[in-house]
Amino acid sequence: MLKPSAGVALEGLPYIIISAFTTLIFAIIGCWPVAIIGLGLTFFIGHFFRDPERVGPEDAEAVSSPADGKVIKVMREADPVSGEMRQVICIFMNVFNVHVNRMPVSGKVELVRYIPGKFFNASFDKASKDNERNVVVVTGKGNQRFTMVQIAGLIARRIVCWAEPADKFKRGERFGLIKFGSRVDLYIPDGYEPVVGVGKKVIAGETTLAQKRKA
């Protein structure tokens, strides 16, 4: 399990270094138009791989967002692991969002399963079944099971997951990222109810997606 980092995700450093080095070479040889383009690209890559600190919801039992982005779907669907019908909240991340993913609840990782696939636009419904994806199942308080699916997008070509079975996480801790555009689907237990709707912009580790249903 990768420990928290600050500022920039470590996976982004090779891209930043290569882009910065190439920009420097073109600047040295006096090819300024290309150097300026390279400088802009370096800033863009650095911005994409940013990894800011976050402050979680005050409610200890709230389910926080696993990703930055916009909610594109809230409905009942079959859990990809158990097949049970559950509420799913789907979050689409564009290239300008932070792409580090965070745990929605505190708990123990029960399953990590990588599934190779295609690279359709992550906002399409078929992306959840056809695209490259990674499934992470976490058992939280009261043995409540939460299923997260990291889904690669049209541009993304690699899903990174630091979580491993038996790892224990606190809510809001980093567990992975998806490079260059993607989506995260979160399947929640029946004991919880969504508090966000389609179109809502959310922040990983901070925004409350669901709350425990009152008896």
TL;DR?
This protein is α+β, with helices and mostly antiparallel strands. Helix content is 17%, strand content 37%.
| Largest sheet entry | 8 strands, antiparallel
> Which CATH architecture of the largest domain would you pick?
Distorted Sandwich
Overall geometry: elongated
Gyration radius (Cα, Å) is 18 Å
What name does CATH use for the topology of the largest domain? Glucose Permease (Domain IIA)
Euclidean distance between termini CA atoms: 36 Å
Helix content: 10-25%
Total of helices? 3
Question: So what's the oligomer here?
Answer: single chain
Q: Please give the number of β-strands.
A: 16
β-sheet strand percentage: 35-45%
Order of helices and strands: EHHEEEEEEHEEEEEEEEE
Number of domains: 2
Please tell me the overall pLDDT.
85
Question: Can you walk me through this structure?
Answer:
- With 215 residues, the protein is α+β, with helices and mostly antiparallel strands.
- The protein has 3 helices and 16 strands.
- The strands form 4 sheets. The protein has an 8-stranded antiparallel sheet with strand order 11-7-8-9-13-5-4-15, with no helix packed on it. Strands 3-16-14 form a 3-stranded antiparallel sheet, with no helix packed on it. A 3-stranded antiparallel sheet has the order 6-12-10, with no helix packed on it.
- Strand 4 and strand 5 form a beta hairpin.
- Helix 1 packs antiparallel against helix 2.
- 39% of the residues are buried.
Q: What's the SSE blueprint?
A:
Layout: E1 7-8, H1 13-28, H2 32-48, E2 50-51, E3 63-64, E4 69-78, E5 85-93, E6 100-102, E7 107-115, H3 127-130, E8 133-139, E9 145-152, E10 159-161, E11 168-169, E12 174-178, E13 182-188, E14 192-194, E15 201-202, E16 208-212
Antiparallel strand pairs: 1-2, 3-16, 4-5, 4-15, 5-13, 6-12, 7-8, 7-11, 8-9, 9-13, 10-12, 14-16
Helix pairs in contact: 1-2
